[in-house]
Amino acid sequence: MEYPKALVTEGMARIMIPKLSPSEGETLEGARSRAPVFYNPVMKMNRDSAILALGALQRRLSRPLTICEPMCGTGIRGIRMALEVPGVREAVLGDMSYHAIRLAEGNIRMNGVGDRVRVRRMEANLLLSLHARPLARFDYTDIDPYGTPAPFIDTATRATRRDGMVALTATDMAPLCGVNVRACLRKYGSTSLRTGYSHESALRILAGAFVRGAAVHEVASMPVFGFFADHYIRLYMRLDRGKRRADESLREMGYLLYCSGCRSFRSVRGGLAKEGGFCDVCGSEMKAEGPLWLGDLADAGFCSDMIECSEDSFIGSNRRLMKIIGNVRGEIGMPPGFFVIDELSSDLGVASRRIEPVIDGLKAAGFKATRSHTDSRGLKTDAPVEAVKGIILEADA
Length: 397
Ligand SMILES: C[S@@+](CC[C@H](N)C(=O)[O-])C[C@H]1O[C@@H](n2cnc3c(N)ncnc32)[C@H](O)[C@@H]1O
Ligand SMILES: [Zn+2]
Description:
The chain is of the alpha/beta class. The protein has three domains: 5-34, no CATH class; 41-300, Rossmann fold (3-Layer(aba) Sandwich); 339-397, 2-Layer Sandwich (Phenylalanyl-tRNA Synthetase, Chain B, domain 1), CATH 3.30.56.70. It contains 15 helices and 15 strands. The protein has helices at residues 28-34, 44-61, 76-84, 98-110, 124-130, 153-158, 173-176, 181-188, 198-215, 243-250, 300-311, 319-330, 341-348, 355-364, 385-394, and strands spanning 5-10, 13-18, 65-69, 88-95, 117-121, 138-143, 160-170, 219-229, 232-241, 253-258, 265-269, 287-293, 339-340, 369-372, 375-381. The strands form four sheets. The chain has a seven-stranded mixed beta sheet with strand order 5-4-3-6-7-9-8, with helices on both faces. A three-stranded antiparallel beta sheet has the order 11-10-12. Strands 13-15-14 form a three-stranded antiparallel beta sheet. β6 (138-143), α6 and β7 (160-170) form a beta-alpha-beta unit. α11 (300-311) packs antiparallel against α12. The chain is globular and about 60 Å long. The chain starts with a strand and ends with a helix. The model has no long low-confidence stretch (mean pLDDT 96). Zinc ion binds at residues 259, 261-262, 264, 279, 281-282, 284.
């Protein structure tokens, strides 16, 4: 089947994509989902983040890299990595779709990277399994599926070197954010909850599922950078070898308990928390969410390396991404979860407060406080809910 195509430029790559022709009354999204090969310009920031994260990994490993993108669509992500990250020796791209593979092959030729980038028409788990042995593993594996990456966690771990990195995109926000609880349990083995900080919890549920999946293979893993934006979450997991380290990574697993009565929350490490018990503040029953990852969602040195890599690249001018990296770095060391300032203001019956004076007030009172990158009205702090409410009452609208 031949179909009309259009040329787009993204980063250093020039890519042919299917030309969208929405029928009458159809949205661009609708036309995109019908296209023979998937390309979403909104995901450019996701791909930009991959270029910086791979650059940061390269700095740490200081060796030529092999990478795999087993669900490559047009090939844009893998081609950009080969063009924009120094030291990519070999990229293996894959896709199940005949049209995707044909388009990716043409795009690889057009960008002059055919000597380093090859493409295979194959199911992703099969392609990854073929590389799941020493010497055949990749330094970096990028899982960018439709919806959930959960079915690829096992094979991605097995196909990645023990000091390498796995990147995951998840767009199934309804399960991860407590809207479709049963699907979350099915996909991630975790109970999700609808709270003000659901997008952060989504990252923690995915990280937790990955940590447990990797531990099965005696591989330790931890997030070095993760963020929520638009309609997806994106997580970069660094791997490490050994039973002891895998056991240590599991110590960061646990539950987040949430009180819908007063909006307080707390975390419990380890164990099973089928029920959340009662809230210390208002006595209401708390709900448990998890198991999930309670540790940091980023590593400060890795974020700094990403920022440094951006300085050598046009990606530095992507102000939105740079702000996200800065905010994610600012969240390191803060407890999981956050308050939404509008929810607390509304509970108190006062007008919504500006977030900065509340952050300053909390800091002046000796607490830690910062913004959440997932929500411009999200306030991360180690202060208890009553202290935050007290500061809100003092702050001007
Ligand atoms: C979200 S698109 C990938 C977009 C691409 N990574 C990018 O950055 O533009 C998902 C792709 O995965 C392919 N796909 C879905 N399930 C697959 C599977 N199990 N194995 C291989 N390819 C798959 C689809 O054909 C589609 O091209
Ligand atoms: Zn309470």
